[in-house]
Amino acid sequence: MITAAPALTPEKAALPLHADGWQALWRQAIRSPQALLDELGLEAGALGVSAEALAQFPLRVPRGFVARMRHGDPADPLLRQVLPINDEMQVVPGFSFDAVGDGPARKATGVIQKYRGRALLVATGSCAIHCRYCFRRHFDYAGENAAKGAWQEAVAAIAADPGIDEVILSGGDPLSLSTSKLAELTDALAGISHIKRLRIHSRLPVVLPERVDDGLVHWLAALPWPVAFVIHANHANEFDASVDAALARLRGTGAQLLNQAVLLRGVNDSVDALAELSERSFAAGVLPYYLHQLDRVQGVAHFEVSDEQALALHAALMARVSGYLVPKLVRELPGDTSKRPL
After folding, report:
1. Cβ–Cβ contacts within 10 Å for residue 90, how many?
2. Which of helix, strand or coil describes residue 299?
3. 49-106 pLDDT, tens digit each
């Protein structure tokens, strides 16, 4: 049974989550498959660990996230999300380097606009964790980074289009940036009168909850717009007390918290896993938002769940949990005017 996260008093919620700070924990992330497997008591050979996949897309996983993995379990759903394996090297028809059409939707350096009224800023290429199913694993972050030139080109492009009323901070992970760098960006955006909302997509509150420190909380609380904060968790086991505390602090800023997940074979492709994820995220104060079908980028085909199975799982989830716990099942396709419901 999923139980609600314990209530935090304002005093407890205001405490820093780690004395060393999130940057130190970032630097301590595991980057070697062997070191990761040693932590879990597993042998590399049986899991098909691939040096080629590692060279193509490096491993990075915070130690706090590793601590939530099941020791001795090669099928652990959190491990499967981060371990580079031979399956990634398959070249599969229908899988491309830009599965969601980021390139054609480029508006300016680091600015992507696919849908009316919304502009996405690629704030950074850095992430605290490298998810093996990442749809931007082949993205040109060096060339397409909105932070170049002190945000000037990106901010100017948004300011020049009065039809944009929502800005989305993405990446990479925008919370990889220092809070002062984020404030530099939002200070520049604050001068654009037609912006009505800010949306932030970040996995850090889940994989590195210490990032939600006093400075970040103060920055969020002072923003001049309503904020939708979209976290990314794929499995109930990604939540623990430290994540609950981070999410409580985010809620305390007035932000609306949403979760988007990706349907992944071997991770959450069962109605039990999906129901537990929805119930656990809601217990932590986060509303289920999207359940994405896999973006078909090269290297991730082994994670794909068929549309038929996805629809069956979604129907079973609707029959099992309250309606507000059922995320929208969607796919993103290049050229569409919105996410496409299945």
Report:
1. 12
2. coil
3. 999 999 999 999 999 999 999 999 999 999 999 999 999 999 999 988 886 777 787 8
- Entry pTM: 0.91
- CB distance 165 to 195 below 8 Å: yes
Strand order in the sheet with 118-122: 106-108, 111-112, 118-122, 166-170, 197-201, 227-232, 256-262, 287-292, 328-331, 340-341
Sign of the torsion formed by the C-alpha atoms of 48, 91, 57 and 290: negative
The predicted-structure confidence for 211-236, as pLDDT tens digits, reads as follows 999 999 999 999 999 999 999 999 99
Phi, psi dihedral angles at 85 (to 5 degrees): -130, 170
Q: Give the CA angle between residues 21, 70, 286 to the nearest 5°.
A: 60
| Cα angle value 256/285/244 (rounded, 5°) | 115
DSSP annotation string for 229-297: EEEE--SGGG--HHHHHHHHHHHHTTPEEEEEEE--TTTT-SHHHHHHHHHHHHHTT-EEEEEEPPP-B
Which of 252, 312, 255 minimizes the C-alpha distance to 287? 255
